[in-house]
UniProtKB/TrEMBL annotation:
Cited SUPFAM superfamilies: GroES-like, NAD(P)-binding Rossmann-fold domains
Assigned keywords, A-Z: Metal-binding, Oxidoreductase, Zinc
UniProt family annotation: Belongs to the zinc-containing alcohol dehydrogenase family.
Name of the protein described by the UniProt record: Enoyl reductase (ER) domain-containing protein
Needed cofactors: Zn(2+)
Upper lineage: Eukaryota, Fungi, Fungi incertae sedis, Mucoromycota, Mucoromycotina
Length: 337
């Protein structure tokens, strides 16, 4: 490949506004591939990075390989692949060698490199691209590369058995996939949302039961069966003591949504006497990503999406829905065929 030009949709200084830019790319290195993007999910994390002129966002792209470097053997031209938050790692440290490349000290993460999914093409390291299982549609696969693997990673690292109990806080882009993964995992799964407006959909996604957080009081929670893990997908502040009281002894609260401010816990004694834990959960590395795709295909897990064209007009509409929390439940940009 000679030096060529691709079209990308870059952020402007005006929040929520993007522009079309032409970017020159040099011949592919040994491990690189050129992908023609077929679909790209729009994530709330994209909204967090908006407003810096020239930044190309989008970390849930799926596309067809149209060219590959000389050392790419695992993938072929014509394969449909996706990429994710983790763009590169050293592949030679303790974390990488133990399957924890997502924790590599030399990792490169979205949006570094400016070669991301809001574009017509993407160049990426083939070692961090993942072939879709046969039959998985690109538009449904996109959100799995961030939202899907994030909730899957929490379940996988928790080592919870099918006899366990899990609560999912927040029924949005992450939460509705968490419910599907939980149901397939075999655990008892409870959906928690502020009101009962999402109850029926939560049950349809796989929840066994539903709780409205507006009803939460210490007395109300005292009467409930407790949970082995809680997966919090809400980006905002909670009554942390109240929610920690929902955990069984030895239970873990997985923090996926980002709080608006610091976490304040008054009843710290419960962390000690009941051995409760608060743990962060990042998107999975390469090994977990491969497992998640197989698991999702096996159990027919897919996001509920809103489709928008992969162009500036579609991006503006999708990003607005996402930032306002109105997407039901994941906005996806889809290229014209």
């Amino acid at each position: 490949m000679k030096t060529t030009t691709i079209t990308q949709f870059a952020s402007t200084n005006e929040r929520g506004k993007f522009k079309s830019v032409s970017t020159k790319i040099t011949p592919l290195s040994h491990h690189e591939i050129l992908i023609k993007i077929l679909a790209c999910g729009v994530c709330h994390t994209d909204c967090m990075f908006m407003g810096r002129d020239g930044d190309v966002l989008g970390h849930e792209p799926v596309g067809e390989i149209v060219e590959k470097g000389s050392s790419v053997e695992r993938l072929s031209v014509g394969d449909i692949v996706g990429t994710s938050f983790l763009k590169s790692a050293c592949l030679d440290c303790r974390e990488c060698n133990s399957g924890q490349d997502i924790m590599c000290k030399h990792r490169i993460m979205f949006p570094e490199g400016n070669m991301n999914g809001f574009a017509e093409h993407q160049v990426c390291d083939s070692r961090f691209a993942y072939k879709l299982p046969d039959g998985m549609e690109p538009k449904y696969a996109g959100p799995l590369f961030c939202a899907g693997v994030t909730v899957f990673n929490a379940l996988y690292t928790s080592k919870i058995s099918p006899t366990g109990r899990v609560a999912v806080i927040g029924i949005g882009g992450l939460g509705h996939l968490a419910l599907q993964f939980c149901r397939a995992w075999g655990v008892h799964c409870t959906a928690i949302s502020r009101s009962f407006s999402k109850k029926e959909e939560a049950l349809s996604f796989g929840a066994h039961d539903f709780l409205a957080s507006k009803d939460f009081t210490p007395e109300y929670i005292e009467k409930l069966d407790k949970y082995d893990i809680i997966i919090n997908t809400v980006s905002g502040d909670l009554d942390w003591d109240l929610y920690l009281s929902l955990l069984n002894r030895n239970g873990t609260f997985y923090l996926i949504g980002v709080p608006d401010s610091s976490i304040e816990i008054k009843n710290t004694g419960a962390l000690l006497t009941d051995q409760k834990a608060i743990r962060g959960s990042l998107v999975g590395g390469r090994y977990v990503m491969e497992l998640m795709l197989v698991f999702a295909q096996r159990h027919h897990i897919k996001p509920k999406i809103e489709e928008y064209p992969l162009d500036l007009e579609g991006l503006h509409a999708a990003i607005e829905r996402c930032e306002k929390g109105q997407a039901r439940y994941r906005a996806v940009l889809v290229a014209k065929q």
